[in-house]
Specification:
This protein has 3 domains: 259 residues, HUPs (Rossmann fold, 3-Layer(aba) Sandwich); 161 residues, Beta Barrel (Ribosomal Protein L25, Chain P), CATH 2.40.240.10; 116 residues, Ribosomal Protein L25, Chain P, CATH 2.40.240. Helices cover 26% and strands 23% of the residues. It has 13 helices and 27 strands. A 7-stranded mixed beta sheet has the order 12-25-26-27-23-24-13, covered by helices on one side. Helix 7 packs across helix 8. It is elongated and about 100 Å long. The structure holds adenosine-5'-triphosphate and magnesium ion. The site of adenosine-5'-triphosphate has 15 residues, from helix 2, strand 8 and helix 9.
């Protein structure tokens, strides 16, 4: 009926942004004949929706320009930026690949920065030999003190004028493992007074006696991002290296590395770096470090907790790849940072599921209704459409109707105001697809809690049989007690209860976790047809929202449903109050 498989991404709708303007100009002016991009995650955590923006951009460019430049070699690589063995792991690589595929994209080549460690080492020696790099033996504290700050120029390292021979010897011995961590580093010899702090003799290599998930014990020195990234791009022939704005100051160093190696290395391309605004979303956090804190501190159930903005969390929550791609296309690619409203993301999943999710009846907080004048042994099979009139789809199922039904506790009020159109003593309401019922008696337990309603039904008012029946304002959903499927339902809401997490100390944002972000309801009653729901199937529970059958915790006969999103943007309203 509905499946969680995604349609592969197709060429994005004629997107227009400043990156495409740059590429078009490069093509027009014949600086490039093809477009090669890459998505370069560090395998130290799971991807989040910010990464989805970058994925849609990089893979989307390849799809777009491949169509315009057939046979040109236009493509997009997935490259793991695995230069820090302490935090990285194969487990994360597997998760990242699954996420990219699920989003609907396929890479034209899977690479690792570590594929190029040998080349990078050779290039580092070349920089030493050409007087562009030196081994510095200051302590971390000394280097920091000598760096200066934006207003104060840095001081040259006392090791800056080591001879080429001495540098080469030390660097080779660093590789051989003769020194402990932090004893020496390799630095670019640039300018300690440069206004751009990144250019103040940046670190290119450091010692780390740590095994690497790809290269094992082969290396005990590892290149820094700023050295590894431009070289990886250049080796792979990347034409447009796209990253987020916080790397703006790194661009000068990126160019310095390329400029000082390109002749020697004979790179197949001279890549350029372009920066775009990173995605930030309100009511959540989009930083791997913070997400990791939530996971490791057990504030959530794991990287795929449906409260998290991780791709794995959004997938489990029930978001479709199509909705995430539509969201990314909608927010566009700009040069200035801004915060996107969560409501915009929620709009896209509603928009997608409106066309895809069959409508069914589910009672989350059941209240028993006995229809006294309905025969005990009778069951009627009522026709019910899976789709509303404005969705051009067909498909129906039979809803069993019997003497005892469950309705939503919230759909009954003992002392109801005039404009309450649901059920109340003496009042009449329509049961969706079925009859009008009237509440005759309210039964309570010792504590005064309403536990059952005794009602009667009007035989003349069956939907379909009597289309010109009496007008009753309220229609409520229900399920037949005898036929209901029991289920656990998890109502998810926004992760944070405030729009912007505190910017202060890192863990302060933990105080902003919305305690209502997860509400577990057991003993829910679903209509019979949901007994056949498979993990990953999505539905609209009429009047309640969109739900997905949880892929991890559902068991045959005991499904678990996650609320993907409510039907309306209830936030806009509650926020106003
Ligand atoms: P975070 O900053 O969230 O911890 P990261 O930047 O360290 O993530 P990487 O694995 O280095 O994560 O990111 C891979 C790519 O995704 C980079 O090119 C990065 O610029 C991009 N990216 C990361 N976060 C966002 C975001 N919020 N919006 C858009 N692109 C992003
Ligand atoms: Mg980062």
């Amino acid at each position: 009926m509905n499946s969680s498989d995604s349609e592969p991404a197709s060429t994005p709708p004629k997107a227009h942004d400043f990156i495409r303007d740059i590429i078009n100009k490069d093509l027009e002016e014949k600086r490039q004949t093809k477009v090669i991009t890459r998505f370069p995650p560090e395998p130290n955590g799971f991807l989040h929706i910010g990464h989805a923006k970058s994925i849609c951009l990089n893979f989307g460019l390849a799809l777009d320009y491949r169509e315009r430049l057939p046979g040109s070699g236009t493509r997009c690589h997935l490259r793991f930026d695995d230069t820090d063995p302490i935090k990285e792991d194969t487990l994360f690589e597997d998760g990242i690949q699954a996420d990219v595929r699920w989003l609907g994209f396929q890479w034209d080549g899977l690479y690792h920065a570590s594929d190029y460690f040998e080349k990078m080492y050779e290039y580092a020696e070349h920089l030493i030999m050409t007087g562009k790099a030196y081994v510095c033996s200051q302590t971390d504290a000394e280097s920091k003190a000598n760096r200066g700050d934006v207003k104060t120029p840095g001081k040259n390292s006392p090791y800056r004028d080591r001879s080429v021979e001495e540098n080469l010897d030390l660097f080779r011995r660093m590789r051989k493992g003769e020194f402990p961590d932090s004893a020496h580093v390799l630095r670019g010899k640039i300018d300690m007074a440069n206004a751009n702090m990144k250019m103040r003799d940046p670190m290119l290599y450091r010692i780390r006696h740590t095994a690497h998930h790809m290269t094992g014990d082969k290396w005990c020195i590892y290149p820094m991002y700023d050295f590894a990234h431009p070289i990886s791009d250049a080796i792979e022939g990347i034409t447009h290296s796209i990253c987020t704005l916080e790397f703006e100051n790194n661009r000068e160093l990126y160019d310095w590395v390329i400029d000082n190696l390109i002749e020697y290395a004979k790179f197949p391309s001279r890549p350029h770096q372009y920066e775009f605004a990173r995605l930030s979303l309100n009511y959540t956090v989009l930083s791997k470090r913070r997400l990791q804190e939530l996971v490791e501190g057990k504030h959530v159930s794991g990287w795929d907790d449906p409260r998290l903005p991780t791709i794995a969390g959004l997938r489990r929550r029930g978001y479709t790849p199509e909705s995430l791609r539509a969201f990314c296309a909608d927010i566009g690619v700009a040069k200035a940072n801004s915060t996107v409203d969560m409501a915009q993301l929620e709009f896209h999943i509603r928009d997608d599921l409106n066309q895809k999710a069959p409508r069914v009846l589910a009672v989350l907080k059941p209240l028993k209704v006995v229809i006294e004048n309905y025969p005990d042994d009778k069951v009627e099979e009522l026709d019910a459409s899976y789709w509303p009139h404005d969705v051009p789809k067909t498909g129906t199922r039979k809803l069993p109707f019997s003497r005892e039904v469950f309705i939503e506790q919230d759909d009954f009020m003992e002392e109801a105001p005039k404009d309450y159109y649901r059920l109340a003593p003496g009042k009449e309401v329509r049961l969706r697809y079925a009859y009008l019922i009237t509440c005759k008696e309210v039964i309570k337990d010792e504590s005064g809690k309403v536990v059952e309603l005794r009602c009667t039904y009007d035989t003349e008012t069956k939907v379909g049989d009597n289309p010109v029946g009496r007008k009753v304002k309220g229609t409520i959903h229900w399920v037949s007690a005898r036929h209901a499927i029991g289920a656990e339902v998890r109502l998810y809401d926004r992760l944070l209860s405030i729009e912007a997490p505190p910017t202060g100390k890192d863990s302060e944002f933990l105080n902003a976790i919305n305690p209502g972000a997860l509400q577990v309801i057991e003993g829910c009653k679903l209509e019979r047809s949901l007994g056949e729901a498979k993990p990953g199937d999505r539905f609209q529970f009429e009047r309640q929202g969109y739900f997905i059958c949880d892929e991890k915790d559902s068991k045959p006969g005991a499904p678990v449903f996650n609320r993907i999103v409510t039907l309306k943007d209830s936030y806009a309203r509650t926020q106003k109050k």
